[in-house]
Write a structure and sequence with these properties.
With 105 residues, the protein is α+β, with helices and mostly antiparallel strands. The chain has a single domain (7-104), classed as Arc Repressor Mutant, subunit A, CATH 1.10.10.10. The chain has 5 helices and 3 strands, in the order ααβααββα. It has a 3-stranded antiparallel β-sheet.
């Protein structure tokens, strides 16, 4: 993750991307496998989901655990840092619902 001019910019840079916030919110509920995440977000391509997961892992917000089984089992979960930013994303989610309701009027 590249440090921004302001800490707010750093935060936005780390969660900016197609469905990164949604991925974090899904992982806050429980660990997920790739296919589970793909089913929860059918409007994102596999290529884009893989890219977003890799970026979140590079930014230390999620961790990828590979189990030595045949076939290999891979799970994604939040790191402690990912868990720390979850309340902010939850507030953003509620604010988005409020904005959508206002737009409908």
């Amino acid at each position: 993750m590249k440090k921004g001019y302001c800490p707010i910019d750093t935060f936005i840079q780390s969660i900016k991307g197609k469905r990164k916030g949604t991925i974090i919110l899904h992982l806050f509920i429980e660990k997920r496998r790739y296919n589970e995440l793909a089913k929860l977000m059918p409007d994102i391509s596999e290529r884009m989901l893989s890219k977003q997961l890799k970026e979140l892992e590079e930014d230390l917000l999620i961790q990828k655990t590979i189990y030595p089984e045949v076939p290999p089992r891979v799970e994604y979960s939040l790191t402690n840092l990912g868990k720390e930013i979850q309340p902010v994303l939850k507030s953003m989610f509620r604010a988005g619902i409020h904005l959508e309701k206002q737009m409908e009027k």
